[in-house]
Amino acid sequence: MPAARPHIEPRRVPTADSVVVKEIYLSVQGESSHAGLLCAFIRLTGCHLRCTYCDSEFAFHGGARRKIADIVSEVRGLRTPMVEVTGGEPLLQPGVYPLMEALLDAGFKVLLETSGAIDVRLVPPAVHKIVDMKTPSSGEHLRNDYRNFTSMNANDELKFVIGSREDYDWAKALIAEHQLLQKPYGSLFSTVFDKLHPRELAEWVIEDRLAVRFQLQMHKYMWDPNARGV
Predict the structure, then answer these.
(1) Would the annotation count 186 as a binding residue?
(2) How far does the chain reach from its first CA to its final CA, in angstroms?
(3) Between 218 and which of 30, 105, 181, 224 could a Cys-Cys bridge form, CB atoms 3.0 to 4.6 Å apart?
(4) Residue 226 has pLDDT above 70, yes or no
(5) Is 147 labeled as ligand-binding?
(6) Is the pTM of this model over 0.90?
(7) Residue 55, annotated as binding a ligand
(8) Is 54 annotated as belonging to a binding site?
(9) Residue 15 clears pLDDT 70, i.e. is over it
(10) Residue 100, φ and ψ in degrees, nearest 5
């Protein structure tokens, strides 16, 4: 079996006052336990992964460097109490930590969508972390950093995007090996859009009596799955 690849260590720079932003927009949260709620999204530029099923390749490059204070001001103007920081992989930018702290200080409920490939131990505890563990069909599962299993807290959720029976069996075995259902955070299962019918995944979960949250990426059913700003 191939060896896991070296981990990228999280890097926090408390004095950082800017990040590179691809887009900021208002939409309905499409997944996680917050699905269906109004949410502002801050999408940061850059990602070190190249998942086969990636739906945000446009965020790999480009964007504009913006001051954290200006970002918080723009999000206030969207008039919603909840904001998600996403990417790309937002934890690649050291300024993301001061950004999340500034959003918390401004009174927002803050969500972070991050891959399972960077340890979340430096993320403020009050941030609701949605950690996307990469399954074999992503082509990046050897990048997963299992230190996340002890860095997460009761605010958080572990996400598995399932594209095949192999992915499902792999995720189920990982959950058993690390006793993830006994952790204070929840586990989410969803399908790779247009690769695996949601009914199949739901039936596997039911058959195994697996105590995970089955979910759909609602935004992909409501809008073009390749659309931006939704």
Answers:
(1) no
(2) 39
(3) 30
(4) no
(5) no
(6) yes
(7) yes
(8) yes
(9) yes
(10) -65, -40
CATH numbers and ranges of domains, the chain: 18-222 (3.20.20.70)
Q: Is 215 annotated as a binding residue?
A: no
Strand, helix or coil for residue 137: helix
117-131, 139-153, 204-218: lowest mean pLDDT where?
204-218
Report whether 29 belongs to an annotated binding site: yes
Q: What is the side-by-side strand order in the sheet with 18-28? A: 64-67, 18-28, 38-44, 82-86, 109-115, 128-133, 157-162, 186-191, 213-214
Asked whether residue 86 is marked as a ligand-binding residue, the answer is: yes
The span from the CA of 71 to the CA of 9, in Å, is 26
E-strand stretches of the chain? 18-28, 38-44, 64-67, 82-86, 109-115, 128-133, 157-162, 186-191, 213-214
39 is in an annotated binding site: no
42, 84, 107, 109, 128 from 125: Cα distances, Å: 19, 15, 15, 12, 8
Taking residues 66-82, what's their average pLDDT? Answer: 98
